[in-house]
Amino acid sequence: MTWIIALFFRLALWLLLAPLLPGIINKVKAWVAGRRGPPVLQLYYDLARLWQKSVVLSNLASPGFVIGPAVAWVALTGAAMLMPLGPAGAALSFRGDVLLLIYLLALARFCTAWAAMETGSAFEGMGAAREVSYAVLAEAAIIAAVLSLSVQSNSVSLNTMLAPASGAGAVLLAAGLFTVLLAENCRVPFDDPNTHLELTMIHEVMVLDHSGPPLAVILHGASMKLLLFAVLLTEAVLPMRNLTSLAAVSALAGGVLTVTVGVGLVESLLARFAFRRVPLLLTTAFLLCLFALLVAWKEGAE
Amino acid sequence: MTVGTLLLFAFVALMTSIAIGVWLSRTWLALTIAATGAGLGAALMVLLGATDWEWRSGISPGGEPLHLRLDGLSALFLVVLCVVGGAGAVYSREYWSDHHYPASAPRGRMWWSALVSSMGLVLTVSNGLHFLIAWELFAICAYFTITLDRQQREARAAGWLYLAASHAGTLCLFAFFALLAARTGSWDLGPMRDQAGLAPLFWLALFGFGVKAGFFPLHIWLPSAHANSPSHVSAILSGVAIKMGLYGIVRFSGWLPVPLAAGWVVIGLGAISALFGIAFALAQNDFKRLLAYCSVENMGVIMIGLGCALLAVTHGDAPWGRLALAGAFLHVWNHAAFKSLLFFDAGSVLHATGTREMSRLGGLWRTMPWTAGLFALGAIAVSGLPPLNGFVSEFLIYLGLFDATTSKGASVWATMPAAIMLAMAGALALASFLKAGAMLFLGAPRTQAAEQAHECGNLMRGPMLALAGICAAIGLAPVVFWPAVARAVGEWHPAWVSVEAPVSLSVLGSLQAALAILAVTAAASLWRKVRANGQRRGLTWDCGFRAPTARMQYTSGSFAGIAAGWFVWFLRPERKLRRPRGLFPAEAIRLERVPETVLERIITPVSVAILQSYTAVRRLQHGSLQSYILYVLGGLVALALLVLLGGQQ
């Protein structure tokens, strides 16, 4: 019984906190640019408004256009439940849960991209093609990162494997994972969530034809994915094992906030890369994670 | 009912169905279903029971006593054969009906039964000589089913290529079995793990069976044979026939001792097959060729698991090998289920539209909702995504690779890259099947043929639904299937006998089931919310353009462009480009075709060079007696010189 209550509490925490992150990023960007910017809670208002709206469907769209975002959202929520939250651990933990988490993210990608292709629009085709292609390199980087965590902790379960090493390995891993975070969540320099020039976008262009509740579900799912990666990055590099519960929770919150602010700063200070340089940057992220893996392996072997 | 009776019944039924298949199509179907049902029963009895079935007889065809055996390992493959064999027979009744193909349909029925029974023989005989005979029968039956539609030039060429490749492999198998018989003094097969001298024979088996298994770079025959044969034949080729090659490798790596390097080579070949196979798949425009290359990838995935197990055996029977091998064996079932489903699906599209070019299709979901939905399910399964079966087996293989990596032995240098390549192959598979699904079923129809498509009938839908059910069942309740897989693992390596399913597998199963339920609930609620809020249909928002045409959609080539571009150094696409010219350009073309690079860029040139050298040598033989006498004289002088020089030493 307590487990179910804890699960619901955790679920509520994830669902309610996630839309905060894009708000913080926008605030940071506005602050750097010297503007006032939209309120931090803007995404909450947007979601509430979208949820009430009616929907325009493309003539060509099949039911998959609505089913896709729903399944993707479920997959992302499921992945969030597998993610340990500092001292509280994960809602569910078993050997190999990290693999399920990675593949749930892939399922979400498949469903979003499938829904995008429903409209037969060349723009959405472009976005979906970019999304699934760059994911190949991002996936390699994530697996390398996970392998390095797994090697240094001798475990294949998220609850125990997020026990970060200090030193060169942690720095490499942080840099690699942060780059993957930017790519997977379609932030600058991979994508620009602000523009509405479809030719330059990945994620935003995939959802061009979505409206109303499906769009709300997609946006909420995207914010959950951002939070998920921020938590993963924080726990992968911040040693919290020996802290008291309160200190660990504040360290986690502080870490997530730092990552979010970092994303905002990157977004303010960097321009979006040309598309042909995106694979190079992702390959760099992969190499960073691979070196982190080699460092972990070397330290383990000694 | 004993295993023996069931198998005897299946054999008799199949023989009768071969005999009458040409004339009585209804009876043929009943007999084939009965036979595959009986075979399935026998295989399950062996898999779920504890004892093997073995039968020695006094009859000696070819001078060797008949020895049949069905153990955990061969039963695992027999299940696949029976399921796909039965499903394909039902499917073919509508897909390749007498009405549409009066000439080839009767012949097709006969060869189908012959193919199924010859593969059954390969799985059960336990004598080297008889194995070779069964193997050859299987190769020939497969040739005749591939070339069923022999009016088509491509089908004949594909059949010829298959036959040539298959015999190159069989040549190695002749050497393998002959050497085995010479060294052990008997053609009888069985476990001989203690005779260390037999280890080098593994390389012969790996090549000989590998040609059939179609892993990279021995896959040259596979794409054209799969693409050009009728779809039910493609399904059995991909689901079962290439598994026979795998069966050979698994069988003899379990029975015979293997060289130390075997694990490294197998895992390496597996990783390369997985990555390059799927890279080729992504670049295809023909959806059946895409599926065929994806088979190369899946064979690679299975080989990664097997290679991991071989490494574990040489590292003191490490338990991670058991997980990886179980994953590989489960993937044999999974691949047979989802790939046959996808080939049946492809057949349904081909049947309705008459083209295999993805760029001529599109928007089929409206006229073919069942086919579209089942393709989406198959695509999720084949991309290894939860909550379906593909993820379960890849999960086990990953666990094996991760455990091997954390164990920090020397095998890390194989398992670490293999895990990364497997992840990349998984992401590329997702891209390939998203592309195929989107090009076939989503958007607007690109041609009239696609617009006027029709849904397939019940006899084609039934087998597809059954296979989709298997995909879902293995995904949602993997623990149920564990005992069968564990039995085969124990058969392969007796030290790994176990009954208990890993705890994570049962947790994973319940999580996948929960995920499936939640996904359905969420989809239904969102659908209801959309209905309640009110919906309006409109044009796709193409940047405000009011008159979109179907030709403005993204095509298969443009979708695959980015990722295929990374492999351009290997794929070597042939490009045809005519740029738009002038102020009012009339036409512009950009065509891209990815050839079967290994065949067209390596094997064909080498073969041509060899043939040319033969032609050059043939000039020596021209029928002029004087020259021949000169050759003899020259030869004698050369020999004399040799003797003289040799004598001086």
Share of residues in helices of chain A: over 70%
Give the N-terminus to C-terminus distance of chain B in angstroms: 76 Å
Q: Could you say how many structural domains of chain A there are in total?
A: 1
- The whole-number mean of residue pLDDT values of chain A reads 91
Could you state the oligomeric state of the chains shown?
heterodimer
Shape designation of chain B: globular
Count helical runs of chain B. Answer: 23
- Which parts of chain B are unreliable, with pLDDT below 50 for 5 consecutive residues or more? none
Mean pLDDT of chain B: 92
Q: Biggest sheet of chain B, in brief?
A: 2 strands, antiparallel
Strand content of chain A: under 5%
Largest interface: A-B, 82 and 80 residues
Number of strands of chain B: 5
Structural class of chain A: mainly alpha
Radius of gyration of chain B: 27 Å
What is the distance, rounded to the nearest whole angstrom, between the alpha carbons of the first and last residues of chain A?
46 Å
Rg over C-alpha atoms of chain A, rounded to the nearest angstrom: 19 Å
Quick rundown:
The complex is a heterodimer of chains A (302) and B (649). Chain A has one domain (2-29, 40-301).
Question: Your description of this structure?
Answer:
The complex is a heterodimer of chains A (302) and B (649). Chain A has 302 residues and is mainly alpha-helical. Chain A is 71% helix and 1% strand. Chain A has one domain (2-29, 40-301). The longest helix of chain A is centred in the middle third of the chain and has 32 residues, at 122-153. Chain A is globular, with a radius of gyration of 19 Å. The relative contact order of chain A is 0.16. The model of chain A has no long low-confidence stretch (mean pLDDT 91). Among the domains of chain B are: 260-529, no CATH class; 554-593, no CATH class; 603-648, no CATH class. Chain B has 649 residues and is mainly alpha-helical. The longest helix of chain B has 35 residues, at 319-353. The model of chain B has no long low-confidence stretch (mean pLDDT 92). Classes of the chains: A mainly alpha (302), B mainly alpha (649). Strand 1 (55-58) of chain A pairs parallel with strand 3 of chain B, so a sheet runs across the interface.
